[in-house]
Specification:
6-stranded mixed beta sheet, about 15% strand
Length: about 220
Amino acid sequence: MSRILLVRHGQASFGAADYDNLSDTGHEQSRVLGAALAARGIVPDVVVAGEMRRHHQTAAGVLEGAGLPGAVEVDPGWNEFDHLQVLAVHDQPSTAEGESEKAAFQRWFEEATLRWTSGEHDDAYDESFTAFASRVQAALADLAASLPRGGTALVLTSGGPVAWVCASLLADDAPARTGLWMRLNPVSVNTGTSTVVRGSRGTTLVAFNAHDHLSPDLLTYR
């Protein structure tokens, strides 16, 4: 069987002017994951990343931690959806009495994402949810088809694409996949690793969001 390891990027700079930049913790998470992969004897035949800076910073850290050469292929199919636009087209709700700023933001993000995934306002977005899902699905299919038998690919991407791949492999129809994506995406751990295998039974998810390489002080979700 061939194997694809889908890795969410290390912790980015949430709340900073430039989110697309790993924090110190994110860099350390990446190096720790690389060391853990090396300790398990995992040497990828190909390393693929989306176009985001955080994807490539994570790739660099993983390769450094694993002691591997730094060749990384770029595939925009693994880019995250534009969460800033998804938020921008949905009015930010007022903070409820006693609600923390973090909780208020999470509520705004969930409401905005629900609007995006509904398919009822596609003209408001540069990329609809359906287009996002199709893009990620195509990236997965292309990568799986290119891998030699027994080969391993390491993909550095974001929580949205990882959650969609997992949801699409677990649920049978579009509404169920969308609902599952909504549940998986928020719990994706930074440098959490999901494993997809391809063999005689097709493409199968065998692990989601594994993060046993992280100590408690390195466990983050943003």
